[in-house]
Structure formats: C-alpha cells, structure tokens
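Here is one chain, start to finish.
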Amino acid sequence: MFAAKPVEQQAIFLRSVYFAELKAGGRGYNDPASSRYGSYLRGRQAIAARFPEDRSYAGDLIMFGDSGIRALYGGDISILIRRE
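Its structure:
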C-alpha cells in the first residue's frame, strides 16, 4: 500500500500528515477544553518523528535581489528544503 506508492506520492502524504499533526498540536495547546491544553507534546513528537536527532540536516535557500517571504492576511508559509 504505502510502500508500493512512488516516492513522490509518499512524500506528499507524509508532508500532509506532518503539518496536520502540527496544526492539531497547536489547537490542542490553545483549547482549554482539550486534555492537551497548554502542552505542545503532540507537535514536538511530530517534529521529532520527521526530523530525528540522529541525522544531520543541511540545506540552502537562496534568494536574489529584493526577494522575500511573507504572508499577508493570515496566509500560511511552509518551507521544507530537501537536498538531492
């Protein structure tokens, strides 16, 4: 099933799960009715699963001229840089 999918499709799926977990962790942190209120453990666990500490991570984001990254009116910015 998952392992039979092309690597590109696996990456898309895993990225969507990763960001869904971060969003759910943030919502639980801010919801007084949640059993996870005030705890960002769910988000930290998602980050640890995606970026294990026993690996080295490096990459570059090169921007030229007057380029920049910004969100307007509540927009989202997600940047994951993968070195090939």
